[in-house]
Each structure stands twice: as C-alpha cells, then as structure tokens.
Amino acid sequence: MKRVYLALIFSFIFCQIIAQQVALTKEQIIGMTPEWKGDRLPDGRPNVPDKFLQRLKNISLEEAWGILRNAGYNNQFEGDWMVLKPEKVLVGRALTVQYLPKRTDFDKLIREKGKAEGRIGNFNSWPIDMLKPGDIYVADSYGKIVDGTLIGDNLGNSIYAKSKNGVIFYGSVRDAEGLEKIDGFNAWVKGYDPSYIQEMMLGGINVPIRIGRATVLPGDAILAKKGGVVFIPAHLVEDVVLNAEFIALRDQFGHQRLREGKYTPGEIDQQWSDPIKKDFLSWLDQNTSKLPMTRQELDEFMKKRTW
C-alpha cells in the first residue's frame, strides 16, 4: 500500500511538470490520507470535527508532542517562531502551500495553469481563495525573509474573512502593525520585513510540505501556542485530545490526594496500585462536572486504556 501512496505523490510531481497542476485533486488527497475514516472537506482534506479542535486549545504542546511520539510520529513539532499575538492560541485544519525560489520556465507554466483554472491575482493569493472556516494557511516559503513576505494587512484581512483564523509561514510577512489590528487574526512566522514578495514562485497547493522539523499534510490539525506548533495527523486528533484530557484528570486527582495526605508522592508517581485505581474511578464519578469529555467518551476510552 505504501508504494501506492508514494506513486500518487510522484504522479503529482509528474503532473506538475507536464500539466502544471496547481493543487492536488480530491482523489489524490484522499489517497494520501487513507488512515482518516471520517468526513472530508469538498477538496478531500480530512474534516476534523470542531469539537476536537476547540478542546485542543486546552492541551499543552508537551502533552500533544509526547502522545504523538508514543504513536511513532517523531517529526511533528517546530519551535522558534515570531508570534503576532503570543497570548492567543491557534487551532485549525491545515491548507498547505509550497513556495520555491523562482525559476522562470516553471513559474510561467504555473501562472498559465492558474489563469486557465480561473485563479485571480498573484499566486500568493490563490490559496486564500480556497480557505474555508477553520482552515489555517500553512506555507513553506523556505525561510525567506527579505523579499519573501507572503502577505500584508490586505491579504491578512482576506484570510481572516474566509477562515476566521490565521497563518503559519516558514517565511515572512509585511505590514506587521496592520496585521496586529485584525481582531481574531494571528500569525506564526520566521520574520517580518517591509519588502514585497520577489523571486519566488508557487510549487503547489494542498501538497505535503516541510515546516522546519515537521512534515505537514493537508488537513492536519494544528495546535499553535507561544512555545511552538504541533502538527497532528488527522486520524490521531481524537486520541491526542482524549489521552491528554485523561492525563489531566489523573493529575488533578493525584494533586488533590497528595494535598490531603492520603497517598505519598512515591505511591502517586509510580504505577498505581489497585486501591488507588479504584479510588480514582470513584473520584471520577463524584466529579463529573470536571470532565472535559462526555462520560460516554471517557467510558469508551477507559476500555482501551492501560494504566
């Protein structure tokens, strides 16, 4: 099966060269994300439910990172960002974009194909036209700062109008003061510069991209905080949320019992004994108002959970 998915990716690259395809098709995105079994957006990206995206906001980067590492996903975090509004959290679904240093022949082909597809304006506005509510425009512009500014405040306003969200650019933006004034908009970037975009071209939309240390696929769920960004494969979002919420409940219980002096730190910090497990289950029954998930979700999770 892996050969099939690799073949799809290679066929896309071939299509880029021969047919100058601007974005992956719905079928190609479905083929690239086969482990997602839920609903999909019209373009084929996994449609991670809003309820899990909202609950992601309460999860720490370390918790999400640790759960993904335990699942074998070791390259889903990138740090060292300039954040427009560091006090705000950003969550959403990735619409991915690849930018490349300009090569005249290929740039001409992509622009001609974009025009034939009815795309309007410069290529850095094409992904914006595709945004849906809850999307995050995630772009690899290879860390270019000077002459690499993908948006200013005009495009920033358009992005927020369409997505009610923000951007993550492995590159730069301009008009930082104007962007800061857009209520609800946020940005994780590698730098700010007053220059305009030059000597760059579009490589593809909704394609696999690299953001620093991380590989990002279209439809990945994103958790962005001041400490960095975690890109969560869509099929793992529910597991990440429920595991992190369960760990938080265990911590609340353990801290309370330590304050009460009922158990020693050694008892709480090691594998719990059967009496502590029983006490914890009783504590859950007595504190249903503290549950971040539904009781049905918790009961289903507990069936699979190993202590």
From TrEMBL:
SUPFAM superfamilies: RraA-like. Keywords: Signal. Its cofactor is a divalent metal cation. It comes from the Bacteria. Residues 1-19 form the signal peptide. InterPro entries: RraA/RraA-like (IPR005493), RraA/RraA-like_sf (IPR036704). This is Putative 4-hydroxy-4-methyl-2-oxoglutarate aldolase.
